[in-house]
Each structure stands twice: as C-alpha cells, then as structure tokens.
Amino acid sequence: MSAQMPPGRPGNLTPEQEEKLRQLWQMIFQVTAVWPSENGSESQSTAATEPEVAESVKSSDKTPKKNHKVRSMFSRKSKKDGDSESTTPTSTSGGGNVSQIKQSEDDKYGQTKHFHETLANQSPESIRDTIWHMLKHDHPDALVLRFLRARKWDVEKALVMLISTMNWRARDMHVDDDIMLKGEGGAVAAAEAGDQVSKDFLAQMKMGKSFLHGVDKSGRPICVVRVRLHRQGEQVEESLERYTVYLIETCRMLLQPPVDTATIVFDMTGFSMANMDYTPVKFMIKCFEANYPESLGAVLVHKSPWIFQGIWKVIKGWLDPVVAGKVNFTNNVKDVEEFIAAQHIPKELDGQEDWEYTYVDPVPGENDRMKDTETRDRILAERQKQYEAFEQATIRWIQNPEGETAKEVRQEREKVAAQLREGYWRLDPYVRARSLYDRTGVIKEGGKIEFYPVKEEVKAPATPAPAPAPAPVQAQTFETSADDVD
C-alpha cells in the first residue's frame, strides 16, 4: 500500500489549487454567514469560538488587507458593480453574487436549481450545521477538495455541487438522522413492526448482495456486488436506495488517509437478464457522480457474459467520461490480480483468501450508548467549538496566504483537523448504530480498521525435559551355606 498523498489532496496542492481551495472556503463561509462582516466583526454563527482563536481573528480583521475585502455574496448589485467594488481574488465571474449563478450545460442532475432552492428555504445556520454533519472523520479540506476536483477546479460549480449534496443528504435521503442513526438494529425493530422497506433492507444484508471486505493494492476498501443475487421486483425501490446509501456510508468509515476512494467489483458470475435492473443502476450512478464525488478509485466488471455487451453500451452512455474511464473488465483471476493481491482475493472469485461472507445479526444492547444523550451532547458541544476554531483559523488562512502568519495558520488548521478526526470517533458510538463491520471487528474503537487480523501463533507446549535416568539398582547378594541347601 502506497502512503503517498495523491495530487489535489491536503498537503499535495499546487499554489493554484490552494488558491481555489481558499476561494471555495470563503464562498462557503459567506453562504453560511460565518465570514466577518464589512465592519470587521464576527458573525453570530461564530460567537462561541474559543477565546484565543477568536481574539486572533478579530485582530487580523481590524486591519484587513485591501485586496482581500469581500462583499456579501447575497448582494443585489449587478455583475458590473460587483467587479468594480470588490477587488478580492476570490471574486468569481459573477462578482461573488451567488444569486446570479446560472445552470451550466453539464448540470445533468439539476443541482443549480437545488442550490438556489436551498439558499431560499434554509437559514445560513442550518446550511452550516448540515455541512459540518457531512464531515465525519474526514479532514475538512479533503471533503471540500472532492467537489473541486469533481468540477475541475471551477469554484462556483463546486459550491453548487456541495450545497446540493448537503440538501440531498439532509432533506431527501436523511442519511445522518435516519439511515446511519438507526442502522441495522433499527431495521430489525421496524421489520418486526411490519415495515416492508426494512424487511427488504435486511434481506439484502443477510444474503450478502453486496459486501465490504479487504483492500486492493492501493489500499482502497473493496466492495463486492454479487449481481446474480439481485432480481428485479424482489425488493421495493426505496429499500434498494437505502441499502446503497448505507453501504457507501459504511465504506466511508473504512477510509484511512491518504486513501480516499474505494474499489467496486461487480461479480457477474451466473448473470442472466433476470438480474438486470436499470433503476438501481441509475441511482448508483447518480450517487457517485452527484453526491459522492471523487469516491471511486476503480470499478471491476468481472466475468461478464456476452449478453452484457449491449447493456454496457447503454450504461456507458449514462456515465461521466471520467467515471467510465475507471471501469475495467476482468475475465479471470489473473486480470483481477492487476488490482488486488492474490492472497486478498476471496476463493469465490478464484483467489487464495479463505474467507466467506457471513451475516451477523444485531446484538441486543449494542447501541445502548446512543441512549446516553448527556455524553453525546457534551461531545457535540466540544465538536462545535472545534468547528468554530477551524472556521476562524481558515479565515485567517484566507486573509494571510503568505508569510510567517500563513505558516502559523496552516499549522493551526492541521492541529484542529486532527482534533476533529479524533473527536469524531469519540462521538461515533452515540450517533451511528453499530453495523455488521463493527460486530465482526473490522471497525474498532477509535476508528482503527482491521480487515486482516493477525492470527496469533499457537505455541506448542514446551517439551518437558527428559526425566533423569534412574540410578542403577545394585543387585543384592545373599550368602548361602551348606545348611541352606536342601
């Protein structure tokens, strides 16, 4: 596994990419009312910031550099007025006015419309909270950079995509307050009460239609999809979508920096037309292209039969060229070994690993910590301070891109980012129901991931030392006399 940070990630940015990152963070802060107002004071959203961080930001804001003056993104001024009034390098082609962002030709999922609807219907504080809820154990920059890379470093398009994704998670799919909060244990309770979506969700979990196991040669988690186990109409559509999002979100938990993508293996063994279902395929494509950008490392279509050729032509037409370029067709285990080490390929894929998928049912009491709302709220309060500290450090980073101050602020941001990562894993048991991968020891306390536990060698009992040879027994002699002879 390579430990090198790929390009376009935190710690491996060109100066131009770092400037784009600054621009996007500034636009996010303006949308969420975090960016300081014109008079240099802080917004109400950051009033509870840790004193020392807040004080340093206030002092830097009192004497802002002229070329970093920023006008509110909600200004109603025209593009021309905006260009003449704002000299900030973060101004976009629209003069920094998000209300004038128009839908681009490549907006295949209508995200610009969702973006404007979100700004119109939600408060800046609500948008801010939902963005931070997306974070999990990621580095904040790593999360934001996904959207920049997906939109080829176009800051406006990245902002639109990020806000649209946030709205999809919170308003459409309820990822954090339902799917991951209730998890498999919640599905069991709902299924017992007669809920069909939950019944179908659990059926897919138990059969192992898809599962997460192991890593490829680049250290990316592997998701195997057994296409032969899907039959159109066997599960309701909502359960298919819920199952897909649950699996993607669980896979996110398995990412260990610098790895930030996964590999999917579509096992087409035994595929027939009865297994083909375009509806979940379209949903999966939309997830990765619109809502989980830059999450796919490689896709292997394994042992596809000839009847899949025509189907692939249709599917390929739906894919973004970048995503389509990650699809590889493998016909045998040697082809798979180009991506996954032989010892990490399960035997069902003709590999060497003696491992089989087995579903372990939720255990009573495994989510008891979620009832401890006092501890949860205390950790959330600590995390809120960390969000605010990162925001304030980022504002200073935007306003001081060069010099000693920039160096100090970078260190401060990295320090807070590390605290956020560690803090998430302390919060995790209180906001995410335990999954199969927690029960089987893949996800351990503190976020350690262990797909391949080291088997302890069973030591043979020490061979006892040979017993000392018994002392030779001296033969007894008896004296005889003539009287003893009969």
Determine the fraction of residues in helical runs and give it as a percent range: 40-55%
> In terms of structural class, how would the helical and strand content be classed?
mainly alpha
**Strand coverage percent:** 5-15%
Q: How much is the average pLDDT?
A: 86
**CATH H-level superfamily title of one domain:** CRAL-TRIO lipid binding domain
| Element-level helix/strand string | HHHHHHHHHEEHEHEHHEHHHH
- CA distance, first residue to last residue: 96 Å
- Structure annotation, total helices: 17
Number of strands: 5
Shape: globular
Question: In the CATH classification, which architecture of one domain applies?
Answer: 3-Layer(aba) Sandwich
Radius of gyration: 30 Å
As for the CATH topology of one domain, it is: Phosphatidylinositol Transfer Protein Sec14p
CATH class of one domain equals Alpha Beta
Q: Sheet bearing the most strands, described?
A: 5 strands, mixed
Residue runs with pLDDT of under 50 for 5 or more positions: 44-95, 472-486
Q: What order do the strands of the largest sheet run in, or round the barrel if closed?
A: 1-2-3-4-5
Folded structure, characterized:
It is a single chain. The chain is mainly α and 486 residues long. A five-stranded mixed β-sheet has the order 1-2-3-4-5. It is built from 17 helices and five strands. The chain is 47% helix and 6% strand. Mean pLDDT is 86; it is low at 44-95 and 472-486. Among the domains are: 15-173, no CATH class; 176-349, Phosphatidylinositol Transfer Protein Sec14p, CATH 3.40.525.
